[in-house]
Each structure stands twice: as C-alpha cells, then as structure tokens.
Amino acid sequence: MSIAQVVYGGALVVLLASITKYYYAKKRHKRIEAPKYKMLDDDD
User: Fold this and answer.
1) Which residue range forms the structural domain that includes residue 23?
2) Tens of pLDDT along the chain (44 residues)?
3) pTM for the model
C-alpha cells in the first residue's frame, strides 16, 4: 500500500469523525429534534 493511500484513508476517517461530532453536538440537539416533534403535534 502506498503512502498516498494511507494519507487519503486517514483524511477520510478524520472527515467522517468531524462531521459526526458536529452533527451530534449537544448545542445542536434541540434544533435537530424540533422538526420531529413538530410533525407529531396535533394541528387542532
């Protein structure tokens, strides 16, 4: 395996981890979950 493949694979792992960490951050939790509960509320 060449060094370029290792660097590319490592970069992809770091990118995936950072996206996951950003998405599941505590401060974003309310904004992420709000549409789900809004959809379940009755309109009456």
Assistant:
1) 3-40
2) 799 999 999 999 999 999 999 888 877 877 778 887 888 777 65
3) 0.60
